[in-house]
UniProtKB/TrEMBL annotation, chain A:
UniProt name for this protein: biotin carboxylase
InterPro entries the record matches: ATP-grasp, BC-like_N, Biotin_carboxylase_complex, Biotin_carboxylation_dom, Biotin_COase_C, CPAse_ATP-bd, PreATP-grasp_dom_sf, Rudment_hybrid_motif
Biotin carboxylation domain ranges (all copies): 2-446
Biological function: This protein is a component of the acetyl coenzyme A carboxylase complex; first, biotin carboxylase catalyzes the carboxylation of the carrier protein and then the transcarboxylase transfers the carboxyl group to form malonyl-CoA.
Gene coding for it: accC2
Organism: Marinithermofilum abyssi
TrEMBL record, chain B:
UniProt-listed NCBIfam families: PRK05889.1, PRK08225.1
Entries under PANTHER family matching the protein: OXALOACETATE DECARBOXYLASE ALPHA CHAIN
Matching PROSITE patterns: BIOTINYL_LIPOYL
This protein's record includes keyword Cytoplasm: no
Superkingdom of the source species: Bacteria
InterPro entries: Biotin_Carboxyl_Carrier/Decarb, Biotin_lipoyl, Single_hybrid_motif
Gene3D superfamilies: 2.40.50.100
Domain Lipoyl-binding: 1-70
Pfam families (alphabetical): Biotin_lipoyl (PF00364)
Name by which UniProt lists this protein: Acetyl-CoA carboxylase biotin carboxyl carrier protein subunit
UniProt KW keywords: Biotin
Length: 449, 71
């Protein structure tokens, strides 16, 4: 099967990115948009565009029925969900298929299984993929907790079963500390959450966030496209990603890619997906979660492998086998992506508004995937990411040098952006040396060279 | 008279105080929402709420006055 027309159920930069590959293949592009996005480039550049509702996502980009209706009315045969929004919604994927359309992504059943943390963890354990060690259920006495902690190994995290969002969590470094803290933690869990059940998990100290890109076709071929280092984060959201990771050992790379392939095969994965891991200071790896969609940071993988991930997603969805095998995938050079957020660079608070100027350098090793251009308004309804700047080169040193020039010359006016922060990061000693973990933006002030 | 100003552009999600309420410095008085983030706005000083200038659902810019306080 060969698609003639595809609907993109997304907005901004990723809608434009997907449209680019569709156009290269001569496939018609259908955009859907909310009233707030009427003037954005992704709407204008599409072959057809359908307004699906008012600005709030619940009434537009999360309105699956309106999106499917738009696909039927325009005669699109397939729906590409992009990332975020409905991309990991198994119910939407099923409705798309029930409407006789193709969902560009894995089977809805796979999305559902990986979306549930408990199920995902169980599937991975059974497949021999390492997960963060923990107690299978609750612990009720401190003696029981001490036995479990000895088995897991200190430091451990003591968590309230009913808690969440970091509340009711304690890092415990010794048996003495556990004995002292257990009764009060139990009391607080009962008082705050009405349930005194506690459980233990291995505390992964100063972890790095490393993820593996995988690709699988319906014929049973599964390959990995190496890893991305994504440890520079604020509020658990990535800010800078690179391919390959500058810090992991070759043996760790092997462990990560092996585990990712096992994970993908264990769930019967098809299409492009990402397996996220934590890597601790001793290079032990732990499965975090699987993202069953295209990732925001996929361009760094594209830069280093020379592949078009959206194109490969289309191939798989059309039922074609992957056009290469694992041995054909050789990483070449280095790439780093910088996410440009409409936000205050110090307080990380959103800064919507009208973009009066949006200008950047162009040239070799520079790719900018942007959702806006000069004159557009960044509305307060959606994610603050307005663009991604991807810099590539022969080696990491060249990429860093080029990044400094590109980021210094990047001009966004009218709204506040995190560009000043990105400009500091590329001069930070830890970043330059490639020695950083997820605490990079939280723990220490930026260190100038 | 003291004012509490908006820390960012966004939509007023919730107003937590009414005229006549006593507020303490550092207390959350309004919750704003922008770009999928909920951000509480605190009063910098203590006082009695004289007037609430915004209501839930309204759009505010950075620096807009949200409420006025009598010390």
């Amino acid at each position: 099967m060969q698609f003639q027309k595809v609907l993109i159920a997304n907005r901004g930069e990723i809608a434009r990115r997907i449209a680019r590959t569709l156009k290269e293949r001569g496939i018609g592009v259908v955009a859907v948009y909310s009233e707030a996005d009427r003037d954005l480039p992704f709407v204008r550049e599409a072959d057809e565009a359908v307004c699906i509702g008012p600005p709030p996502v619940a009434q537009s980009y999360l309105n699956g029925k309106a999106i499917i209706r738009a696909a039927k009315e325009t005669g699109a045969e397939a729906v590409h969900p992009g990332y975020g929004l409905l991309s990991e919604n198994a119910g939407f994927a099923r409705e798309v298929m029930d409407a006789g359309l193709c969902f560009i992504g894995p089977d809805p059943e796979v999305i559902a299984r990986m979306g549930d943390k408990v199920t995902a963890r169980k599937v991975m354990e059974e497949a021999g993929v390492p997960v963060v060690p923990g107690t299978p259920g609750g612990v009720h006495t401190w003696e029981e907790a001490a036995r479990e902690a000895d088995r897991i190994g200190y430091p451990v995290m003591l968590k309230a079963s009913a808690g969440g969002g970091g509340i009711g969590m304690h890092v415990i470094r010794s048996r003495e500390e556990l004995e002292k803290l257990f009764p009060s933690a139990q009391g607080r869990a009962k008082a705050y959450f009405g349930d005194g059940t506690l459980f233990l998990e291995k505390f992964v100290e100063s972890p790095r966030h490393v993820e593996v890109q995988i690709l699988a076709d319906a014929q049973g071929n599964t390959v990995h496209l190496f890893e991305r280092e994504c440890s520079i984060q604020r509020r658990n959201q990535k800010v800078v990603e690179e391919c390959l990771s500058p810090s992991i050992e070759p043996a760790t790379r092997q462990k990560l890619t092996d585990a990712a392939i096992r994970a993908a095969k264990a769930v019967g994965y098809t299409g492009a997906g990402t397996v996220e891991f934590l890597v601790d200071a001793k290079e032990r790896i732990y499965f975090l979660e699987m993202n069953t969609r295209l990732q925001v940071e996929h361009p760094v993988t594209e830069a280093v492998t020379g592949l078009d991930l959206v194109g490969l997603q289309l191939d798989v969805a059309e039922g074609k086998p992957l056009p290469f095998s694992q041995a054909d995938v050789t990483p070449k050079g280095h790439a780093i992506e910088y996410r440009i957020y409409a936000e205050d660079p110090e307080r990380f608070l959103p800064s919507p508004g009208k973009v009066t100027r949006f200008q950047m350098l162009q040239g070799e090793g520079i790719r900018v995937d942007a959702g806006v251009e000069s004159g557009n308004t960044v509305s307060p309804y959606y994610d603050p990411m307005v663009a991604k700047c991807i810099v590539s080169g022969c080696n990491r040193g060249e990429v860093l040098e080029r990044s400094r020039q590109v980021l210094a010359a990047f001009q966004v006016e009218g709204i506040k952006t995190n560009l000043p922060l990105l400009q500091k990061i590329v001069h930070d000693v830890r970043f330059v040396q490639g020695k950083y973990d997820t605490g990079f933006l939280n723990n220490k002030p930026i260190q100038q060279r | 008279m003291q004012q509490v100003q908006s820390t960012m552009a966004g939509t007023v999600l919730q107003v937590l105080v009414q005229p006549g309420d006593q507020v303490e410095a550092g207390q959350d008085v309004v919750i704003l929402e922008s770009m999928k983030m909920e951000v509480p706005v605190q009063s910098e000083s203590s006082g009695t709420v004289k007037e609430v200038k915004v209501e839930a659902g309204a759009f505010v810019g950075e620096g807009d006055v949200l409420l006025e306080l009598d010390e």
